[in-house]
Design brief:
By secondary structure, the protein is mostly beta strands. Helix content is 10%, strand content 47%. The chain has four domains: 114 residues, Trypsin-like serine proteases (Thrombin, subunit H, Beta Barrel), CATH 2.40.10; 301 residues, Neuraminidase; 86 residues, 3-Layer(bab) Sandwich (Phage tail protein beta-alpha-beta fold), CATH 3.55.50; 139 residues, no CATH class. Strands 1, 29, 30, 31, 32, 33, 34, 35, 41, 42, 46, 47, 48 and 49 form a 14-stranded mixed beta sheet that branches.
Length: 667
């Protein structure tokens, strides 16, 4: 149950209470800002290696190289106050050529541009006045080989610098500490040749790397080079896969770029060399509230432009910027919102084990909602986030319980009886999971124990923009490592439901978070109905269990024998004879795992056998799978423990309706 203030708790238990619902539309998706990109510059520069940084004065500093046919010349650009009226076409030739790759970084007034030459020289330009003037080209080191594919650099807040070089199949790091360049060192990974690297500093050196694995599959990975934040100094984290394409196919990945605004965001290029070949930037972002080392990214999505060498990203002040050699884009960083509270005619909110829906009718008599997505209501558009907060007027003023969000799927204009309204329909995170489908086959634990059931669920949830948090968990979900496959076009919701069938645990979604719960019969109640909080009406039913015997078949690979384990509810079998469910799963390679699966089947049947519905004044903090007590003397119930399995909230102020209808089950 969500936390409520004492005054809000008191208000919702009063015989007479004044309801209040707050509803806002915001330009977010799963809690993350949705950027509205506007292209400010469309030039004719050749698409080649490039970089972007924004020093402490808000200026824009870019660098680019040209192809070998133009001697690989290195150009730089500084735009003092970038905006719609700026000229992004003016470049300064640095009198440097044979620049294979380039990178830029800045800290305060200091700006540096790095490049590597075919003779392995690693060189740098440095400015101490925001890029207005530059020193001479410096030779700082040599690359290990001539097979250089990319370079990236970032400053630490104390002024130290790290430069990362994608050199054949190795990633090298070279740090400048206290003004002194250190000996470069190689990572400890084994891969095929690399094709790109990006980095930024945030307690550690956070990286993106593109290239091949040892089998020749093309990959985009996240990686951390530790500096004592989440990873020990001087050590490398594991590679976390973000995107993958098979060896021998027509796809590859290259040119990653990385930035952090509200969350970490990245761009990289997907190169397709088949029929109708393309070079297309893709974008992705991490989830709110996760660390970079967790490696939880949303499913990458294409960006509407064609370029092989990617889109560099940086931000300053109120704007975030993208750039290619021939293009510059800008989007506001400030979140936009629209308060819809005053125009609510009615609300119906439904939440259950299958998902959640919010339907809101708004007064449109004055025509203010005639054109959603435009003008003053531009934020109210398909895909925006609706933030729904039920509450009451209390002795402390207006109070409500926040945290529930929905994605707007449709709006419907109505005109009847001389009145006009607009009806908004929105889904919760289960809708996002239904919409997500695997782009290619995903498989875990084929030969080794890569991820347990909970970790696989977390990865799939992240692909739809949802963070998994644990309220409670079973041993099964944390220790079972099934050979599990998600095939192309399989939906995220179907995959999650299949994974949850392996364990007694359940999941509910609120906002951009999914909460894992292991229902236990000894769980303590979090709220009581029937005394302080009245029950308007109730229906209570006890049914026979649909399953009273679970027969589970696994396979012991070590002995080459079947495992067959039975789990029984003997009292139910005595009453009803046998109701059996067969479960076959070759992932169950021990008797303990088979027994746990059978008990999970019976546990869910036990919960479902007790059901009912209570109608109550709205409890603003109630959540799915909360344990409550019900006291209803007319039905013979005295502090009976039940579990919330569904919630329907109805708000119709013109009729004086503000109530919840809660579906309840066994504990």
């Amino acid at each position: 149950m969500r936390d409520l203030t004492s005054t809000l708790m008191t208000a919702q238990q009063q015989a007479v209470a004044v309801p209040y619902i707050k509803l806002e539309a915001v330009n977010k998706i799963a809690g993350v800002d949705r950027y509205s990109w506007i292209r400010l510059y469309d030039g004719s520069e050749v698409d080649w290696f490039h970089t972007l940084t924004m020093p402490g004065d808000g200026s824009m500093v870019r660098a680019r190289t040209t192809p070998s046919s133009d001697s690989r010349k290195l150009y730089r650009q500084r735009v003092s106050s970038p905006g719609p009226e700026s000229d992004f076409s003016q470049w300064t030739y640095t009198n440097q050529y044979n620049a294979i790759v380039t990178a830029a970084a800045s800290l305060g007034a200091e700006v540096a541009i790095y490049w590597i030459k075919p003779n392995r020289e690693i060189r740098r330009f440095k400015s101490t006045d925001y890029g207005v003037t530059w020193g001479s080209a410096e030779l700082i080191d040599y690359s290990q080989t001539t097979a250089i594919y990319d370079i990236a650099a970032a400053y630490k807040p104390n002024g130290d610098i790290a430069v990362f070089i994608a050199d054949a199949a190795n990633l090298y790091v070279m740090k400048c500490i206290g003004g002194q360049w250190q000996t470069k060192t190689a990572w400890d990974k084994t891969t095929g040749n690399l094709s790109g690297v990006a980095c930024m500093y945030d307690g550690d050196w956070n990286l993106l790397v593109t290239g091949k694995d040892t089998a020749g599959n093309f990959k985009l990975w996240s990686l951390v080079y530790g500096d004592g934040g989440n990873v020990s100094p001087g050590t490398w984290s594991t590679l976390k896969e973000i995107a993958s394409a098979p060896a021998g196919g027509d796809y590859e990945y290259k040119q990653p770029f990385l930035d952090k605004t509200d969350v970490y965001r990245c761009f990289f290029t997907e190169k397709y060399s088949g029929i109708e070949a393309y070079n297309r930037p893709f974008q992705s972002h991490m989830l709110l509230g996760v660390t970079y080392s967790e490696g939880l990214w949303r499913e990458p999505a294409p960006f509407n432009v064609s370029c092989e060498y990617g889109l560099a990203m940086a931000h300053y002040g109120d704007y975030v910027w993208l750039a290619s050699p021939d293009g510059v884009w800008r989007a506001p960083l400030v979140s936009q919102s629209l308060d819809l509270t005053a125009d609510i005619i009615s609300v119906r909110q439904e939440s259950n084990q299958a998902g959640g829906v919010l339907v809101v009718e708004l007064d449109n008599n004055d025509g203010k909602y005639a054109s959603p997505g435009q003008g003053d209501i531009a934020v109210l558009d398909k895909g925006c986030q609706l933030e729904f907060s039920p509450g009451y007027r209390t002795t402390a003023g207006v109070e409500y319980s926040s945290g529930q969000t929905y994605c707007l799927e449709s709006f419907e204009h109505t005109s009847t009886g001389g009145r006009a309204s607009v009806i908004l329909r929105a889904w919760d995170g289960w809708g996002a999971l239904s919409d997500w489908s695997a782009r290619h086959q995903l498989r875990w634990n084929k030969t080794t124990n890569d991820k347990n059931v909970k970790e696989i669920i977390a990865v799939i949830m992240a692909r739809a923009g949802i963070k998994l948090e644990v309220k409670s968990q079973s041993a099964t979900i944390a220790n079972f490592y099934p050979d599990f496959t998600v095939n192309p076009n399989d939906s995220g919701k179907d995959a999650i439901e299949k994974l949850l069938s392996f364990a007694p645990d359940v999941v509910f979604i609120e906002g951009n978070k999914a909460y894992l719960v292991n229902p236990q019969s000894e769980d303590s109640p979090v709220y009581n109905y029937g005394v302080e909080h009245v029950i308007l009406d109730g229906r209570y039913q006890q049914s026979a269990m649909r399953v009273n015997r679970a027969q589970v078949e696994g396979y012991d690979t070590g002995q080459g024998k079947l495992i067959v384990i039975d789990s029984f509810d003997w009292e139910e079998m005595d009453r009803l004879y046998e109701r059996i469910r067969h479960v076959e799963d070759r992932n169950l390679n021990t008797t303990a795992k088979a027994y746990q699966r059978g008990e999970a089947v019976l546990r869910k049947a036990e919960i479902d056998a007790i059901e009912g519905i209570i109608t109550i004044p709205v409890n603003c903090g109630q959540q799915l799978y909360d344990v409550i007590t019900v006291t209803d003397a007319r039905a013979g119930l005295e502090v009976a423990k039940r579990r919330i399995l569904g919630i329907t909230l109805v708000y119709q102020p013109q009729r004086g309706d503000y109530y919840q209808r809660s579906e309840i089950g066994g504990v």
